[in-house]
Amino acid sequence: MTATTYTIRVASALLGTGLTPIEDASVVVRDGRIADAGPSSTVASDGPEVEVAGATLIPGFIDAHVHIGFVSPRDVLWGGVTTVRDLAWPPDEIWPLVDRSTAADFEGPSIIAAGQMLTTPGGYPTRAAWAPPGTGYEVASPLDAPKAVDRQLVQGASIVKIALNPPAGPTLGAAELSAIVTAAHDRGARVTGHIHGLDELLKALDAGVDELAHMLMSNEVIPDEVISRLVEQDVTIVPTLAVRVDDLSVAIENTARFLVAGGRIVYGTDLGNEGPKPGIDRREIDALHAAGMSLMDIIRSATSSSAEYLKLERTGAIAPGRDADLVATEPLAGAASLTTIRGVWRRGLRVR
Ligand SMILES: [Zn+2]
What is the per-residue DSSP string for 95-114? Predict the structure, then answer.
């Protein structure tokens, strides 16, 4: 049993929502939450001191696109990801797991979820080989949309997910899509989408979809005027570049141009599919770096700015009052340091 109050001392830490680098830092943890954090010279340590010599302490990563049912939650946490957002899984499995993850001693990350993916009858993912029955929910007419949205939100969905994936079946019509987005927005929820190509992207933008759960899956270059429209409509992109088994270059280029235009990127891997590994994913980090993000940009997109976007007030920063969701890494110098992990804490419990 870990002492309920202790002080972590490290060579450096990224503190506060601004991720300010501080040398020789101390973080006081009390009852699972951060009580104080700052330079060791100014922080009054409390309880036993836990030194991770030479390490850098960062907030635990948030992966905004996973299918947690495919992997061991323990492996995800062990790899430095302390919060995940599941983007489609059968309700009888995902909601009990979401509940269990709220326990402080759950051996895995904190889990939020979308519930089922809303689609047209016979559309993706209802016939996808990867998706267990119930992963999708069919919306046959605009009149069905409010019920479909309520079905997810009443169980605790943090976002509503839709699919527009023509290679895998028919897709939602404009009227159904618009009715889903309106129903979600009326209830204060955002809509994220699996959007295959440019035609589907325009349909999603017309309907007011808030987020892309992947960069376009087709290898189409997004025209400048559509990039501008994404930014103007405040659309967030979770690129999930790690999931692409083929050529990454167009997806990286689209991500880069979206960033230059001022777009918001939130870190996510689509864990559970081929490609991404449980934990902080080296392939995703390398691809985001190739799209022009610095190591600090990438950390921010997976911690403080992700938490702000996802409205996760308890995590995402090393700051008083937040959960002690923490990762100790090698000193930050390139992507490899982020996946060379020396300690992981979730809600103050050290798991490695
Ligand atoms: Zn996915």
Answer: HHHHHHTTSTT-SS-EEEE-
